[in-house]
Amino acid sequence: MRDTNVTVIGAGPYGLSAAAFLRAAGIETRVFGEAMAFWKNQMPAGMFLRSNWKASHIADPEKKVTLDAYRVSTGNQVSVPIPLEQFAQYGLWYQSQMVPDVERCSVTNIDIGDRGFNVTLGCGEVFASRRVVLATGIGSFAWRPEEFAGLPPALASHCSEHSDLGRFKGQRVVVIGGGQSALESAALLHESAAEVEVIVRETALNWVGVHYRLHHLGPISWLLYSDRDVGPAGLSRLVSVPRLFRVLPREVQNRAAYRSIRPAVAGWLRPRLPGVRITLGRKVVSATSLASTLRLGLSDGTDRLVDHVLLATGYRVDTSKCEFLPQRLRSRLQTMNGYPVLKRGLESSIAGLHFLGKPAAWSFGPLLGFVSGTEFAAKELVRSISRGDGARRNG
Ligand SMILES: Cc1cc2nc3c(=O)[nH]c(=O)nc-3n(C[C@H](O)[C@H](O)[C@H](O)COP(=O)(O)OP(=O)(O)OC[C@H]3O[C@@H](n4cnc5c(N)ncnc54)[C@H](O)[C@@H]3O)c2cc1C
Question: For residues 136 and 4, what is the distance between their CA atoms, to the nearest angstrom?
Fold first, then answer.
């Protein structure tokens, strides 16, 4: 049993970056999780990051473990757009440089204790921590629309359940969704010799990165777009300042967030889509399992007989799905639409319990759902902890 000041749960970009900044500030920290696990196991091989180069560095206090430094120091190639596998390797290198002692162990329970929190590990250890930082990502928030509830995994699965879409070779697959994940999965399925159709609710796809000229207008482009690469022209600047986002009226926040993260597809994917059937403005209204196949009924009255339906239907943050938070703690957590409501320092209504990454997006905006939000999150966290915010006890 080794008590600590701060426990960071999660070793993805947010957890690693937070740990690096905390330690640089002299704050004793233990970090748990499997480094870059989501990127290695819950995204299909062959994918590319939609974020651009500048927005894909995992933040560190001295800017010395950037993607550029990784390339120079290891001699490894990193192409653009950045392949998922290369980004995951970069993340592992970052971890080896900045947080070499990540404890590859899962946290199974967090509860309020005499000295802050009691943290229980899968291996049975229980220790006290003054603060807990949750950076557990979106993996447990995969969203399955109710039409597909109850279907066996052999017939319906969420994108996050696959690291290799090659297993669908020769099969008829329908992909549900109109965002990057749906269209890129469809391209990968097509390239793996599956017969694929994408069904999109909206009547048109939204393309991003296609306004080439707007990005090459010198100072005007600078005014329109932040390096963080989240959101369209103009809004990109607004959402790159999470502290400003947090104090805007809710209605403005909602609009800015929706416009910044609505389903959209990177322009560079276009040349890979001609062989993919894309059906726009249609919705699946029923899904019936027929032994080893599936009949999908569409809103236009037609149907499809397929071997599998792949749900690229995104993620919905819902803190009630955080199994390591006992009911006693969850009932004290102030939430809105499943998101924790956070104050300065990304601290929740439970003093000393902080949320980083996508769960922080309700309060601090869409930037927190992307790697480029790691700098803000880590600095904000360290500033607040150094000042001793929220150090009062939870009764
Ligand atoms: C298909 C797809 C494409 C994306 N493309 C981009 C992109 O191009 N650019 C971008 O910026 N973002 C992209 N994202 C978003 C991306 O997921 C986030 O930016 C990023 O993963 C956030 O990192 P994180 O540290 O919050 O979580 P993750 O990287 O998911 O890390 C979660 C960590 O928590 C650990 N963990 C979870 N539960 C426990 C537990 N109980 N105990 C211990 N450890 C635990 C895991 O082991 C892991 O280490 C994409 C997402 C998807 C789904």
Answer: 19
Ligand 1 centre and the CA of 254: distance in Å? 23
- Measured by CA distance, the residue closest to atom 27 of ligand 1 is 137
- Closest to 19 in 3D by CA, of 96, 80, 83, 86: 96
Query: pTM for the full model?
Result: 0.96
Quick check: CB of 94 below 6 Å from ligand 1?
Answer: no
pLDDT digits 0-9 by tens, 240-298 = 999 999 999 999 999 999 999 999 999 999 999 998 999 999 999 999 999 899 999 99
Check if 139 has its Cβ closer than 6 Å to any atom of ligand 1: yes
Sign of CA dihedral 68, 70, 75, 77: negative
Tell me what pLDDT residue 212 has.
67
Query: Is the CB–ligand 1 distance for residue 135 below 6 Å?
Result: yes
Residues of the chain with pLDDT under 50: 395
Beta bridge partners of 83: 48
**Residue-wise pLDDT tens digits, 286-300:** 999 998 999 999 999
Q: How far apart are CA 376 and CA 372, in angstroms?
A: 8
How far is ligand 1, taken at its centre, from the CA of residue 15, in Å?
Answer: 9
How does the average pLDDT of the chain come out, rounded? 95
User: Are the CB atoms for 317 and 355 separated by under 8 Å?
Assistant: no
Nearest-CA residue for ligand 1 atom 15 is: 370
Residues 6+ apart with CB under 8 A from 355: 133, 134, 340, 342, 346, 348
* 255 CA to centre of own chain: 20
Q: Is the CB of 194 under 6 A from ligand 1?
A: no
Using a 10 angstrom Cβ sphere, with 0-12 exposed, 13-18 middle and 19 or more buried, the burial of residue 283 is middle
Please report, for residues 278, 296, 303, the alpha-carbon distance to residue 306 in angstroms, rounded to integers and kept in the order given: 15, 8, 10
Does residue 373's CB lie within 6 angstroms of at least one atom of ligand 1? no
User: Helix, strand, or coil here: 59?
Assistant: coil
| Residue type at 24 in one-letter notation | A
Q: How far is Cα 366 from Cα 109, in angstroms, rounded to an integer?
A: 28
